[in-house]
């Protein structure tokens, strides 16, 4: 695990915490940021005993590495993608990034995949603050389009600004 991942995971845990079963949250029962309904590969016993260390390993193996977050050079954009990926899912967040790039004049395919084209575009774009703002706007619009999540939007956007890396 990298120092960048360790930092982002620690920030994520400020908001995710150990356990939640909020009735209005469509994710349902959640441990350390992982919703049970989206992690059905875990047995009931594994779920009951799911620790912060288990969550850290799972976040690294299932999110950080496969979505190539480490390859994004901007700490601020890395933070948005990783943190909001836990809120929205990685595919919608990566699509928001790709839409933002296109709106800023950088043509990339909007497919929700963090491939070489998207990574190159993000790392080549020099106006990081503009990209940061545009990505945050796209994520907010995505969240606003999902009425069941309306009560959480302000908190989710605030947590995205927690780290001004």
Quick take:
By secondary structure, the protein is mainly alpha-helical. The protein has 8 helices and 3 strands; from the N terminus they run αβββααααααα. It is 57% helix and 4% strand.
Mind explaining what this structure looks like?
The protein has helices spanning 3-16, 44-48, 52-64, 75-88, 90-103, 116-124, 128-144, 153-160; strands at residues 19-20, 30-31, 34-35. With 165 residues, the protein is mainly alpha-helical. The chain has one domain: Up-down Bundle (Chitosanase, subunit A, domain 1), CATH 1.20.141.10. A three-stranded antiparallel β-sheet has the order 1-2-3, with no helix packed on it. A hairpin with a 2-residue loop joins strand 2 and strand 3.
Task: Write the topology of this structure.
Blueprint: H1 3-16, E1 19-20, E2 30-31, E3 34-35, H2 44-48, H3 52-64, H4 75-88, H5 90-103, H6 116-124, H7 128-144, H8 153-160
Antiparallel strand pairs: 1-2, 2-3
